[in-house]
Amino acid sequence: MPTSLTEGRLETHVGAIQMFRGGSGDPLVYLHSAGGESTNAALEDLADDYDVIVPVLPGYGESEGIGDIDDTEDMAFHLLDVWDRLGLASPVVMGLSLGAWMGLELATRYPERVGPMILVNPVGLYLDDAPIKEMFGRSPAELAEDMIADPENPVAQMMRAMAEWTGDVGAQMEIPLELVLPLYKSLSATAKIGWDPYLHNPKLRGRLHRVGSPVLIVRGARDSFVPEAHAKTYAAELPDARLEIIEDAAHLLPLEKPAELAAAARTFLASLA
């Protein structure tokens, strides 16, 4: 039976943030994507063996503090503050997309504070011949084609339905507001840290050599949002990295293939023991 994560709050330098936690064992911190997902079946699976911690980043969910976050450097130092307040030395870090990028921003600055990393469809780089698709200004229905491989997946269906949402809180209530409104809030927070330059840090690639821990790059074979070249570049230029491809998954891989992701993470971490 998967272990549920319990919601709580953590006081940080920028204010109180929402946090989810569950399980026991060595700590594993999950850093969410621009979608702001706070938990998923892969994390509940991993919580059977790890102390899974999901700090919701400022501006996402119910977390305060986005007014004090201007860029990726601010976010990296916020994460360091979270680590300190939770008493984390060098936890395993798993991140999806934006979260993977934020994990790397921390790891290049303080490599001794980051343990093994599992980076799922990471952004953060700019490659001339392989641009990341535009996120802002596209409808949820358009984004669904890049984010979810199976058009019948409930998340894809919800995103398509959201494209028809008019903003009338009294209409179309088959789309829960608790799903709609956080998405728009998340996009606003993402724009603040990832609009210009778009979803990358020009200096990050030159700093990858500073990452001191082993890294597993996990790519969804059908991710059409972030080109394959990004995963291959990370795998080639991080000091100790390997690449795993998961079939029939797109950008939001943890929501489509949670069992496969959890299994890949366990196999990777066991190989380091």
**Mean of residue pLDDT values:** 91
Count of separate structural domains: 1
Order of helices and strands: EEEHEHEHEHHHHEHEHH
* Strand arrangement, major sheet: 1-2-4-3-5-6-7-8
- CATH 2nd-level architecture: 3-Layer(aba) Sandwich
Helicity level: 25-40%
Q: Tally the beta strands.
A: 8
CA(first)-CA(last) distance: 25 Å
Rg calculated over all Cα atoms: 17 Å
Uncertain runs with pLDDT below 50, 5 residues or more?
A: 166-179
Q: In DSSP terms, counting alpha (H) and pi (I) runs of 4 or more, how many helices? A: 10
Quick one: biggest sheet?
8 strands, mixed
CATH homologous superfamily grouping: Alpha/Beta hydrolase fold, catalytic domain
Strand content: 15-25%
Q: At the third CATH level, what is the topology name?
A: Rossmann fold
Explain what the structure shows.
This protein has 273 residues and is an alpha/beta fold. The protein has one domain (6-271): 3-Layer(aba) Sandwich (Rossmann fold), CATH 3.40.50.1820. Helices cover 37% and strands 17% of the residues. It has an 8-stranded mixed sheet with strand order 1-2-4-3-5-6-7-8, with helices on both faces. Mean pLDDT is 91; it is low at 166-179.
List keywords for this structure.
273 residues, Rossmann fold, eight-stranded mixed sheet, 17% strand
Brief write-up:
The protein is an alpha/beta fold and 273 residues long. It has a single domain (6-271), classed as Rossmann fold (3-Layer(aba) Sandwich), CATH 3.40.50. The chain has helices at 41-46, 72-86, 98-109, 140-147, 154-162, 177-194, 204-207, 228-237, 253-256, 258-271; strands at residues 6-12, 15-22, 27-31, 51-55, 92-96, 117-120, 215-220, 241-246.
